[in-house]
Every structure is written in structure tokens, then in C-alpha cells.
Amino acid sequence: MNHPAETQSFHGNVRRPFPAALLDALKAKFADRVSTAQAVREHHGRDESPFDPQLPDAVVFARNTDEVQAIIKLCAEHAVPIIPYGNGSSLEDHLLAVQGGVSIDLS
Predict the structure, then answer these.
(1) Nearest CA to 103 among 62, 64, 73, 49?
(2) Which DSSP helix (H) or strand (E) runs through 105?
(3) Contacts of 84 by beta carbon, 8 Å cutoff, 6+ apart
């Protein structure tokens, strides 16, 4: 398995800028279920792999399928990566936000 830092330079996976307009739209729709708090982002930016944490720019706590669809639509409009988050037990860095983006908490 490649370390995310190694694949960043090889695949061009550099952190993308996070649009303020997207954060505003997410907060307008999901209010206090959107977080940019460091502790929340750290919780959603690490897994059980030996790799360093890679934090998302924001975390949204979705309650149902319609909300997941709304988050995906907003992220697509702004070309922002989406990272699904179940319970954080991934062993293969599936939830590390190597390009930043929005973590959708599905728990």
C-alpha cells in the first residue's frame, strides 16, 4: 500500500481550495450538522491505517438518503471531493482526505 504523502506527488493529489460558497450552502441547508471544528475534522480524518491523518475541510452529519444526495449535489457543483464516513475503522486509508473535501458522516 502506498502512503498518501507518496501518492500525492505521483498522482497530483494536492489539497484543493475549499470554496466559501460551498460552506455557506452547506450551513444554510444543514445548520449545526456542518462542522469545521478541528477536533471533528481530526476524528473524520484518520483511520486504523498507519498513515498520518488527512483532514477533510468540513464534516456534514447526514440523516437520510435525501440529505446525502443534497450534499453530493452541492459538492459536485463546486468540484469538491466527498469522503463517506461510517465508523472510521478503515484499514486501507479509504477515508483520508488527501485532497481535502467534505466528509459525509453516515453513522
Answers:
(1) 62
(2) strand 102-105
(3) 95, 103, 104, 106
Q: What is the pLDDT of residue 94?
A: 61
CA distances to 61, 87, 102 from 52, rounded to whole Å, are: 23, 18, 18
Q: In the predicted model, what is the mean pLDDT of residues 71-80?
A: 97
Q: What is the pTM of this model?
A: 0.82
> Would you list the domain boundaries of the chain?
4-105
Cell numbers 464516513 correspond to 85
Q: Give CA torsion, residues 22, 17, 10, 89, to 10 deg.
A: -50
pLDDT digits (tens, 9 = 90+) for 86-102: 865 555 446 677 788 99
Of 14 and 5, the structure prediction assigns the larger pLDDT to 14
Instruction: State which amino acid sits at residue 59.
Output: V
Class of domain 4-105: alpha beta
Asked if 100 contacts 56 with a C-beta cutoff of 8 angstroms, the reply is yes
Q: Parallel, antiparallel, or unpaired: how do β-strands 58-61 and 34-35 relate?
A: antiparallel
